[in-house]
């Protein structure tokens, strides 16, 4: 198995998406706080923007960091409904998820270029980025997988520059998000290895070696160990299973 750089721990993110009531969030936080997470695993939870402050007050920050789920491209101003990068950093939130397929394809039709620009805005504000990429099923079946991923990566690289130490790449095949269908370990490894080579060819061997590439798409307690055992899978971005404290803690221990 590929050894991660000393500064690049196995990474597990929990994307709570647009879910939760006060009671549900309180229970989830209590269950997470009661769980055991290995010291060599970095864990980040992304509640809804409305719940970030509540979770920040209660979540054990010795085990878990917090993330926003998105930022606006234009900063503060007359942008109703947006959250600026500066607002997250002002609140002490260190991470943000950008480019999730639900924002690319369902909510806001974000382009590759806009996702790349958001990465730059976030980094300039002091945030670290979980940058999501991934293909739809027609793109995969039509033979466009590598072109789609290459274009998404190129747009991120154009804005990130030399700041790859502030970026985690999350490969999330769109056809596996929330569907219960999971890329096989071999499929995940194939794409992650290709992405690592892309980084080596386009950003240099050091960036390829130290940038964490995590997998997302119906990760659960039953498949996390086999997926996490793949050489180029450096962690997970978890959706539905992150809403269950016990399941999420199990996933955090996938390599224990």
Describe the secondary-structure layout.
Layout: E1 10-15, H1 22-34, E2 41-46, H2 49-58, E3 65-68, H3 85-90, E4 95-98, H4 101-107, H5 112-124, E5 128-133, H6 137-141, H7 145-160, E6 167-171, H8 185-203, H9 205-210, E7 213-216, H10 224-228, E8 235-238, H11 245-252
Parallel strand pairs: 1-2, 1-8, 2-3, 3-4, 4-5, 5-6, 6-7, 7-8
Helix pairs in contact: 1-2, 1-11, 5-7, 7-8
Average pLDDT taken over every residue: 95
The tally of domains stands at 1
CATH first level: which class? Alpha Beta
**CA radius of gyration:** 17 Å
- Strand arrangement within the widest β-sheet reads 1-2-3-4-5-6-7-8
Structural class: alpha/beta
Query: What about the largest sheet?
Result: 8 strands, parallel, barrel
- End-to-end Cα distance, whole Å, is 14 Å
Helix content: 40-55%
Count of individual beta strands: 8
Q: What spatial form do the alpha-carbon principal axes imply?
A: globular
Work out the strand percent.
15-25%
CATH architecture descriptor name: Alpha-Beta Barrel
List low-confidence stretches.
Answer: none
Q: Helix tally? A: 11
Order of helix and strand elements from N to C terminus: EHEHEHEHHEHHEHHEHEH
CATH topology call: TIM Barrel
The CATH homologous superfamily is named Aldolase class I
A few lines on this structure:
The protein is an alpha/beta fold. It contains 11 helices and 8 strands.
